[in-house]
Write a structure and sequence with these properties.
This protein is of the alpha/beta class and about 625 residues long. It has three domains: about 1-30; about 45-355, ABC transporter type 1, transmembrane domain (ABC transporter transmembrane region fold, Up-down Bundle), CATH 1.20.1560.10; about 380-615, P-loop containing nucleotide triphosphate hydrolases (Rossmann fold, 3-Layer(aba) Sandwich), CATH 3.40.50.300. About 65% of the residues lie in helices and about 10% in strands. The chain contains 20 helices and ten strands. A six-stranded mixed beta sheet has the order 6-7-8-3-9-10, sandwiched between helices. It has a four-stranded antiparallel beta sheet with strand order 2-1-4-5, with helices on one face. Helix 2 (about 45-55) crosses helix 11 and helix 8 runs antiparallel to helix 10.
């Protein structure tokens, strides 16, 4: 018997595996989704994720309590509508026109009262939900800031944008609409109770219909949750692609690759179209089945009403109420369906938000608690090993001491670990083995603010924000004075260019500084570093885009900083670092030579060859 059950279990597993393979193949062909794009998650609600997100609504519990009270009041008032309707019709049939007018006035008062309560509900809901949305988005953004750099190497920007902007909105809309939906549910329950009071068989017919609709909806819910998840992934991909295309528009035109890029975009929106068609097709089929079933019910309901009227069990007024309000009772199913749909969407948004908070999906940077009050600027690498992926270490057992207030240059061919060393010092990436110390303290034990205030990086391709030059500089220091700003820009040799612009320091620079040349962007980045005035300044090919004249000026300004700051320079051109206190020649993540320019020419053949190659050029 045990073997029989085992065989059945194995057969079920094989069947599930084949079904999954077919589904994955269909996903790839129809939606462009690889197996790795869709995580193996249940279509069931992620309650843990919802719990993490609900804590942001707790400060406004009072508002939601008031909203619930308003909803209950509205439901109670609206349930009076059929009572007044029945009284009005009965009064008219009995030729009691004054009575009909009296109940019509009551009906009007009830409607106005319901409108006033609803207005209060909307005003409170708007305040509470939008404040919660602001807090939730802010928290997600700061969690994104805390996410390790490696994660951003693997995902597209569209996914992050969607999780910061779209998912919190979807979750907040659900919370806002939930109480309103629950009020609608209470109204429908009130109408059902009203019909039970009129006639128990009418009540049971309505209740049976709603139960049947709900059971049928379970099938739809299971399928729709799968397609919702896939639509989210496809939408993220599309958003990321559109963002990249817009940012690279000049390259697209310059390389004349619009046809190839356009083809890729068309393939992507084809996948979106397919997902939308599949969802719409299934929904329309379901609506057709629902409406067919509803038509049968209405026929049965009206027939039952006529039968009761013929038997004098109900009055003409009651029959009119039957016709007018039976749909209100049936709306219970629609409201429940809407709540389930919105709840599924909200739970999926909550799941995606919770992933940003989660260490496994979005691993967070970890820092210590120590501070360096009076930084000296000594940097020490002790047996550091680092790899972007496990199979290809960039640095291996790397050791080096950079004395405080000295200028040290890393030179060598591209791809041998120079820029990686620059990224490791401010802990943009974490070492796999060994440690890095600043003033004798392991950087993993330092507070984030302490470490990154001490260290400033000037990258090879600095990002310039789409705002004014003044604002770009003030991001580094909020209380920046005009004197400090002008002084830094003069040292960075960009002040004259800025003043040549009509708006001066208030000139808009465009997305990623599009109106600036490569050299101007680098000089602006150097100005930012000077304003920050960190003890340690790291320059990663920071003068690579400068012409010889500008480079000479920057070199002079950097020479003026010598002895006051610890400067680490990654250089492509040896001419920019020949005056460094120490030059470190790196090959394959290891030191092959170390000393001054003159010393290395005598003792390090790779450096000598690199120097001669540059001279020949």
């Amino acid at each position: 018997m045990k073997n029989i059950f085992k065989s059945i279990s194995q057969m079920n597993e094989k069947r599930k595996s084949k079904t999954l393979e077919k589904e994955q193949k269909r996903d790839f062909e129809r939606y462009g989704l690889a197996v790795t794009d869709v995580k193996k998650k249940s279509t069931k609600t992620n309650w843990k994720a919802l719990g993490k997100c609900m804590k942001f609504f707790k400060p406004y519990t009072w508002a939601f309590v008031i909203m619930a009270i308003c909803a209950l009041l509205t439901a109670g008032i609206v349930i009076l509508y059929p009572v007044f309707t029945e009284k009005i019709v009965t009064s008219v049939t009995e030729l009691n026109y004054m009575g009909a007018v009296k109940f019509a006035v009551f009906y009007l008062i009830a409607m106005l009262a319901a409108r006033v309560v609803l207005l209060a509900w909307y005003l409170i809901a708007t305040q509470a939900v939008n404040r919660t949305l602001k807090n939730l988005r802010s928290h997600i953004m700061f969690d994104v800031f805390r996410t390790k750099s490696k994660k951003f190497d693997l995902i597209n920007s569209g996914e992050i944008v969607a999780r910061v902007n779209n998912d919190p909105t979807g979750l907040s809309r659900f919370i806002q609409s939930l109480i309103e939906r629950l009020a609608e549910v209470l109204k429908s329950i009130g109408f059902i109770a009203f019909f039970f009071i009129i006639n128990v068989w009418v009540g049971f017919l309505i209740l049976f219909t709603i139960i049947a609709f709900t059971l049928l909806d379970n099938i739809r819910q299971k399928y729709m949750q799968k397609i919702r998840r896939k639509e989210k992934i496809i939408s993220d991909k599309n958003m990321g692609m559109v963002s990249e295309v817009v940012r690279s528009m000049r390259d697209v035109k310059a390389l004349n690759i619009k046809d190839n890029i356009g083809k890729n975009y068309e393939e992507n929106i084809e996948h979106i179209k397919n997902a939308s068609i599949d969802r719409a097709t299934f929904s329309n089929l379901f609506v057709f089945m629902n409406n067919s079933f509803l038509s049968i019910f209405k026929f049965a309901f009206i027939s039952l009403g006529i039968l009761l009227l013929c038997q004098n069990t109900i009055t003409v007024g009651m029959f009119v109420v039957f016709i007018m309000y039976h749909n209100n009772a049936l709306l219970l199913f629609t409201h429940i369906q809407n709540i389930r749909d919105e709840f599924r969407d909200a739970s999926l948004s909550a799941e995606r938000i919770a992933e940003v908070f989660d260490e496994e999906d979005y691993p967070k940077e970890k820092f210590g608690r120590r501070k360096i009050k009076n930084p000296q600027g000594e940097i020490r690498f002790e047996n550091v090993t680092f790899a972007y992926n496990e199979n290809a270490p960039v640095l291996e057992d790397f050791s080096l001491t950079i004395p405080a207030n000295k200028t040290v240059a890393f030179v060598g061919k591209s791809g041998h670990g120079k820029s990686t060393l620059i990224s490791l010092i401010p802990k943009l990436y974490e070492v796999n083995k060994g440690k890095i110390l600043i003033d004798g303290i392991d950087i993993t034990k330092l507070q984030e603010s302490s470490l990154r205030d001490i260290v400033t990086v000037v990258p090879q391709a600095p990002y310039i924000y789409n705002t004014t030059i003044r604002e770009n500089l003030r991001f580094v220091k909020n209380d920046l004075t005009d004197e400090e700003m002008v002084s830094a820009c003069k040292i960075a040799q960009i002040h004259d260019f800025i003043m040549s612009k009509p708006e001066g320091y208030d000139s808009i620079v465009g997305e990623n500084g599009v109106i600036l040349s490569g050299g101007q962007k680098q000089r602006l980045a150097i100005a930012r570093a000077l304003i920050k005035n960190s003890k340690i300044i790291l320059l990663d090919e920071a003068t690579s885009a400068l012409d010889n004249e500008s480079q000479a000026k920057i070199q002079k300004s950097l020479d003026n900083l010598a002895g006051k700051h610890t400067m680490v320079i990654v250089a492509h051109r040896l001419s920019t670092v020949m005056n460094a206190d120490q030059i470190v020649m790196i090959e394959n993540g290891k030191i092959v030579g170390q000393g001054t320019h003159k010393e290395l020419l005598k003792t390090c053949k790779p450096y000598f060859d690199l120097y001669n190659q540059e001279e020949a050029e």
